[in-house]
Design a protein that fits this description.
Blueprint (H helix, E strand, L loop, with lengths): L2 E3 L2 H10 L4 E3 L7 E5 L2 E5 L3 E5 L4 H7 L5 E10 L4 E11 L2 E13 L1 H18 L4 E6 L2 H7 L8 H14 L4 E6 L6 H12 L2
Parallel strand pairs: 6-9, 9-10
Antiparallel strand pairs: 1-5, 2-3, 3-4, 4-5, 6-7, 7-8
Length: 197
């Protein structure tokens, strides 16, 4: 579970400014607790611990904004179309800041790749990063988003538009195709989600 080293009073102000309801803690050690979406936060003397299915729902408010991150994404489909899942990771000089995976029903591999990219960009945006260097092992998705390949499939075209909208929310971005071994964390997360579905 993510931990944010911070002043709990400042963290409380940030949450309240963002419209999050903050309540008293449940024990003498808990200064306060808050919930938003699929995330729960508990404050102690010098840190806030965030739990839940989507910790980014609160972490985006609690962390200092700005900076640059490397974003890795991968989608997987068994059957193409078949059961599908996505995986993503956000990495800074401090290591892995956040990662996630989830099953997304039945779809094609290319749609899963796009969905993974969109979810990774949403997380990076929610964390407040201003610059992202995005990496994935889907040459098709990377080249379609960069405009090097056409996007004739209506479902992929719709997803491409969504990804471009998300990329516009950053001050600077790059998108590169990398070999699978460079993208191994996102690949593992997507496949683990399928294995446990």
């Amino acid at each position: 579970m993510p931990t944010v080293d911070c002043d709990p009073d400042e963290a409380r102000r940030r949450l309240e400014d963002a419209g999050v309801t903050v309540e008293a803690g449940n024990t003498e050690y808990e200064r306060w607790q808050a919930s938003r979406g699929d995330a729960n936060a508990v404050a102690y003397d010098d840190k806030v611990v965030v739990q839940g299915a989507r910790p980014t729902d609160l972490l985006a408010v609690l962390r200092d904004h700005g900076g640059r991150a490397h974003v890795y994404f991968d989608g997987a489909s068994r059957g193409n179309p078949g059961p599908a899942a996505i995986g993503w990771a956000i990495v800074t000089s401090e290591g892995i800041v956040a990662e996630g995976s989830e099953t997304i029903g039945e779809t094609t591999n290319n749609r899963a790749e796009y969905d993974a990219l969109a979810r990774a960009l949403e997380a990076a945006r929610d964390y407040g990063f201003e610059e992202v260097d995005v990496r994935g092992d889907s040459e098709l998705v990377v080249k379609q988003v960069r405009g090097e390949y056409g996007t004739n499939n209506p479902e992929l075209r719709k997803r491409r538009v969504r990804v471009l909208e998300l990329l516009e929310s950053f001050d600077r971005w790059s998108l590169e195709h990398v070999p699978r071994e460079i993208n191994d964390r996102a690949d593992s997360l997507a496949n683990e989600a399928l294995d446990h579905a």
